[in-house]
Q: What sequence folds into this?
């Protein structure tokens, strides 16, 4: 009987050690990504092609995912509030300010959006991937800004869009600026 109790205790201890190691490994590979997409004060949308309706194809939708390793953070956990306030004070329009947790996985893309639907799209859409090489971290960002423009000849409206797409090597805990015509993006990645 004592031997069975000791074996059970040993198994429980090994299980606890294994779970601790897995949790630690997961937390070491988890990152907090925070992104602010903003409109340049004088920039006009150039009217590039609207993305396909499956803009988030293959990506995990942040608002809808059940994955435990990808989750949205509430605004109390934002770290770029001061930068957002400075942008607003200088006349920039904040289109999206979002933060989430995700692991580094070259196959994982996270899709975020902001605003009320405009047909098949949202006013702001972005797909973000995070990749870790041996000595560096890279961010792959595609972001779209859409505006519905009403035709003067009839009541129909068309979607005018602009896309920002950049792949950027980055350093942890630094604010990185991505620039594109009528919009820009600030991104900060930190270990969670």
A:
């Amino acid at each position: 009987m004592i031997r069975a109790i000791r074996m059970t205790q040993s198994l429980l201890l090994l299980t606890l050690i294994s779970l601790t190691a897995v949790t630690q490994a997961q937390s070491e590979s988890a990152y907090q990504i925070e992104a602010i997409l903003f409109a340049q004060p004088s920039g006009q949308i150039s009217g590039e092609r609207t993305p396909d309706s499956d803009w988030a194809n293959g990506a995990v939708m942040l608002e809808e995912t059940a994955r435990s390793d990808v989750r949205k953070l509430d605004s109390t956990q934002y770290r770029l509030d001061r930068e957002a306030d400075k942008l607003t004070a200088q006349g920039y329009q904040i289109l999206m300010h979002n933060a989430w947790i995700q692991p580094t996985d070259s196959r994982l893309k996270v899709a975020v959006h902001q605003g009320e639907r405009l047909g098949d799209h949202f006013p702001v859409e972005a797909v973000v991937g995070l990749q870790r090489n041996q000595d560096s971290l890279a961010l792959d960002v595609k972001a779209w800004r859409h505006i519905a423009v009403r035709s003067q000849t009839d009541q129909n409206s068309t979607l005018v869009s602009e896309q920002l797409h950049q792949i950027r090597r980055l350093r942890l805990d630094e604010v990185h600026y991505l620039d594109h015509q009528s919009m820009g993006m600030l991104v900060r990645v930190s270990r969670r």
